[in-house]
Amino acid sequence: MIDDENLLEMPGDWQRALCVVAHPDDLEYGCAAAIAAWTDEGKEVTYVLATRGEAGIDTLAPDVCGPLREQEQRDSAAVVGVDTVEFLDHRDGVIEYGLDLRRDIAAAIRRHRPELVITLNHRDTWGGGPGAPWNTPDHLAVGRATLDAAADAGNRWIFPELTEEQGLAPWNGVRWVAVAASSTPTHAADATPGLDRAIRSLLCHRAYIEALTDEDPETYVRDFLTTATSRASTRFGDRPAVTFELFGR
Question: 90 near 131, Cβ under 8 Å?
Fold first, then answer.
């Protein structure tokens, strides 16, 4: 995909999506505007987070920070029409790619039986150009494990304990995995209908934002999301865009 190619519309012929990311706020910085529009259409979207973000605020001990960020995540999900938010309880900051993580995500896919799975950029950097910011190990691990778990979920002989011990039948119904914030997007969703709710959704992470910046939280959030959704607009009919790299299954 070269930079001047037009982005395709995200598929719309699905009913259930599962979003799998590492931390509270990952979806709000990435694709909540698209999620708001999808839930308006009556689609079911569920969030699964590998951690509770307990290591994310330097001034708060993890046992205080984790419950706070969990509640902020539940509040932010509700703003865009998401009722179900689950946490896998891997440790924030030290998530390891491996069988345990793949198994947990495959189990979530079997539980929720999505057609579309969404995760976050799993590559080394944010953006592909010189000097691009380095991505975090948590994002790399969760993004890659989600891509792998989409296949694991449909194979009864991988993690058979999910069937034997948890009663989770294999699910082969994942049709796409969409990676948000990819440096090589192929598809996009119009951010316009859900942008105001995406701003309010990210604002729910107030404790995290106030620790991150001295800027007024509402100004910071509005400027960040307006800029982020405008970056690819020229490749998407001059519409604000939430971009994805879409992998078929």
Answer: no
Q: Is the pLDDT at 2 greater than 60, yes or no?
A: no
Q: pLDDT tens across 163-204, in order?
A: 999 999 999 999 999 999 999 999 999 999 999 999 999 999
Are the CB atoms for 188 and 8 separated by under 8 Å?
yes
Handedness of CA 14, 167, 51, 54 (dihedral sign): positive
Q: What is the pLDDT of residues 43-78, one digit of tens each?
A: 999 999 999 999 999 999 999 999 999 999 999 999
The order of strands in the sheet holding 8-9 is 8-9, 187-190, 241-248, 176-180, 116-120, 16-21, 44-49, 84-87
Residues 116 and 17: their CA atoms lie apart, in Å, by 5
180 in Cβ contact with 31 (< 8 Å): yes
Task: Say which amino acid occupies 141.
Answer: A
C-beta of residue 242 within 8 angstroms of C-beta of residue 231 = no
Alpha-carbon span 79 to 197, nearest angstrom: 6
Under DSSP, the state recorded for 201 is H
